[in-house]
Amino acid sequence: xxxxxxxxxxxxxxxxxxxxxxxxxxxxxxxxxxxxxxxxxxxxxxxxxxxxxxxxxxxxxxxxxxxxxxxxxxxxxxxxxxxxxxxxxxxxxxxxxxxxxxxxxxxxxxxxxxxxxxxxxxxxxxxxxxxxxxxxxxxxxxxxxxxxxxxxxxxxxxxxxxxxxxxxxxxxxxxxxxxxxxxxxxxx
Length: 188
Fold this sequence. Notes:
Blueprint: E1 6-12, H1 15-28, E2 32-39, E3 43-50, H2 52-65, E4 70-77, H3 81-87, E5 102-108, H4 111-124, E6 128-134, E7 142-148, H5 150-165, E8 170-177
Antiparallel strand pairs: 1-3, 1-4, 2-3, 5-7, 5-8, 6-7
């Protein structure tokens, strides 16, 4: 299967329910399992990718399997390639002092909303999504990090924040002009 056209994710309150949902999602349609794991605070996430219709069917089946255990869910059709690459840790930035004009950061209360935010930012502005951190070691939250010009980072951060704010899941949004290169190192 080629890179997915769509990504679907369900975030659950329970690891046991998470396994049930994962099984239902994978049986419901031809999708590729991109990630399934327990995350901080005893939650569980399942992320699948594939053709839009298949991902829709998979997410629908997962939601029907556990209507009471769902924290958040998303379906992102026509996913921006940066989101998929960032989720797979395939984005490499060659950062030298003064080369990156700005860094944008959006922090969310749910892991699922971070993927939605990353897609919105990448589609709204000329930014590179270089890190999507989902839930581990950050209390179950999501984090999206992007680079680009100051104006593009502002536009990307605003677009991402707007999507997350609609769900009431925005923790913070930040744009840092002329960031120190150390900020691009792995810290989480």
